[in-house]
Amino acid sequence: MAGGAREVLTLQLGHFAGFVGAHWWNQQDAALGRATDAKESPGELCPDVLYRTGRTLHGQDTCTPRLILMDLKGSLSSLKEEGGLYRDKQLDAAIAWQGKLTTHKEELCPKNPYLQDFSAEGVLSSDGVWRVKSIPNGKGSPPLTTATTPKPLIPTEASIRVWSDFLRVHLHPRSICMIQKYNHDGEAGRLEAFGQGESVLKEPKYQEELEDRLHFYVEECDYLQGFQILCDLHDGFSGVGAKAAELLQDEYSGRGIITWGLLPGPYHRGEAQRNIYRLLNTAFGLVHLTAHSSLVCPLSLGGSLGLRPEPPVNFPYLHYDATLPFHCSAILATALDTVTVPYRLCSSPVSMVHLADMLSFCGKKVVTAGATIPFPLAPGQSLPDSLMQFGGATPWTPLSACGEPSGTRCFAQSVVLRGIDRACHTSQLTPGTPPPSSLHACTTGEEVLAQYLQQQQPRVMSSSHLLLTPYRVAPPYPHLFSSCSPQGMVLDGSPKGAAVESIPVFGALCSSSSLHQTLEALARDLTKLDLRRWASFMDAGVEHDDVAELLQELQSLAQCYHAGDSLVD
Fold first, then answer.
1. Where is the Misato Segment II tubulin-like domain (predicted)?
2. 3-class SS at 45?
3. C-alpha distances out from residue 269 to 256, 274, 275, 564, Å
4. What are the tens digits of pLDDT across the range 375-417?
């Protein structure tokens, strides 16, 4: 590990969390590859925060995510539970035997065609050469071969069944923890209810497995700043996440715990049981995760957390299918990679604990997220020009299923703008030309951004970061962008030529009064339920008293945001 790294351990719980995580780790891997390229300038983001270095049994240096993920039986497809990077010791011992050897091989799931070029001991770099993964300090083994291979295919939506179908990152053998008692596919044996998820981590087998993996990763850290949990909220993994957060709080007091509660795309009125379970799981998950986390942020492209279906959010320069987890998770991973920038910086990072403290004062431990993907900068425009185009409207699309932020109050916010070339940070006015706005008179990009936020939200505690590093759009990221140049600049009409390679992104975390309405609406929906009709949910380990307590907790949490119902104090 590089000196001074403030390590973060990621827990990835659930199948949609797996989709978001696969895009997230593919992006980290793409950025890591560029950071080790001699032609690239030193990065602004520290890969050691999320990655660990190691060595295989054959002496090969490795760089793998500091990750523990949990999913259900049947969710891995062709991915091995122990990963593909480290050889099995018992197999090596067997091969050393000179006598007769008999091998019994189980039929494997067919590998997605997109992953056929993904070597067990190397990766296909952007220049088409197979290489062993280099580690962040630039050391590493030479190329396995100098033979070039065709550019990797971009997977089609039809070929993506599970998240492992497009994960192009090697995982450590201690990363994957499968819950064998529940099935990913089929109608029977599903992890559907919050109580089921809680009970999983009450079982000694799974609790000890999780604790062993935590100790393995934590003990090798020099300075662990905390944990980030990517957790499905809509199914039984909300209970798994709640128990995991409780365990972390008990064992690692003082460390930051930031939880991202994930919900897939839109739902339909016709699926009564699924919708009721989703409502109950989301409510129980939010309340229990809030009790044990430093900060909780729901992430969804849906318009509502409650029972009433709302259309998915719209992005002016994105065309996506809200019914496809492959698409939705790519967008959420883009936002996640941006709003987590403060605690991953190489220089002057904001710790997870400090970020949570800034946003969660007075009990406001739930925050909302928003992002502009891509940030609309046209050729020839400056940052002040682009920001002025928003007028007084909120510049980002809401990503927490809490409705439109217009007319609500922000109490505190953390904002990141990335991928704007330094030459565009300030207005290049001809000498003697009066500036069209105060933003055009600023002398640095940081000053432009800070003044814009002050104008938008006066008297609000704001933290802002301006990065040159864009979001890399590398395969297998889906083709979602319209009217954009390869560098993500907004063009008039249909783009011509090369595909989009990188984009600027504007992201924010906000403690918002919109949560008052959202949490109260959740409580109202719950009071309308006849729990006798949903005995199967209650039988999974939830008592009627638990539901009554849940309603009280939701209403108390909603009250924390009540004072900001309007923009006027």
1. 6-118
2. strand
3. 38, 10, 7, 32
4. 999 999 999 999 999 988 889 999 999 987 777 889 999 999 9
DSSP string, 225-267: EEEEEEEESSSTHHHHHHHHHHHHHHHSTTSEEEEEEE--S--
Q: Using an 8 Å Cβ cutoff, are 278 and 16 in contact?
A: no
Task: Mention every residue, 6+ apart, whose C-beta is less than 8 A from residue 496.
Answer: none
DSSP state of 340: T
Looking at residue 43, what is its pLDDT? Answer: 82
From residue 389, alpha-carbon distances to 376, 412, 434, 493 in Å are 9, 23, 18, 19
Could you check whether the bond before residue 374 is cis, i.e. omega within 30 degrees of 0?
yes
Q: How far apart are CA 33 and CA 47, in angstroms?
A: 10
The angle at the Cα of 46, spanning 5 to 241, to the nearest 5 degrees, equals 80
Q: What is the mean pLDDT of residues 426-434?
A: 85
Q: What's residue 108's pLDDT?
A: 54
What is the phi/psi pair of residue 416, to 5°? -130, 130
Q: What is the mean pLDDT of residues 219-247?
A: 97
What is the tens place of the pLDDT at every residue in 472-520?
Answer: 998 899 999 988 888 888 887 665 556 899 999 999 999 999 999 999 9
Region 70-95: mean pLDDT is 68
- The reported pLDDT for the residue numbered 246 is 97
Measured CA to CA, the distance from residue 373 to residue 383 in angstroms comes to 15
DSSP 293-314: -SEEEEEBSSS-SSSS--PPP-
**Residues in the chain, overall count:** 569
Using CB atoms within 10 Å of the CB of residue 409, give its burial: 0 to 12 exposed, 13 to 18 middle, 19+ buried: buried
**Residue 158: what pLDDT?**
76
- Number of Cβ atoms within 10 Å of the Cβ of 406: 11
Torsion from C-alpha of 477, 481, 486, 488, nearest 10 degrees: -110
Cβ distance 405 to 411 under 8 Å? no
CB 279 within 8 A of CB 554: no
Q: Which is more confident, 568 or 192?
A: 192
Give the pLDDT of residue 432: 80
Q: Which amino acid is residue 13, in one-letter code? A: L
Location of structure tokens 């997870």: 352
363 DSSP assignment = G
3-state secondary structure 497-553: CCCCCEECEEEEEEEECHHHHHHHHHHHHHHCCCHHHHHHHHHCCCCHHHHHHHHHH
**What domains are there in the chain, each with its CATH number?**
7-81+163-360 (3.40.50.1440), 368-514 (no CATH), 517-561 (no CATH)
Residue type, 444: T
Cα angle, residue 249 at apex, residues 247 and 253 outer, rounded to 5°: 130
| Per-residue H/E/C for 157-171 | HHHCCCHHHCCCCCC
pLDDT of 266 higher than 80: no
In whole angstroms, how far apart are CA 149 and each of 85, 91, 259? 21, 30, 40
- Peptide bond between residue 476 and the one before it cis (omega within 30 degrees of 0): yes
Model confidence at 257: pLDDT above 70 = yes
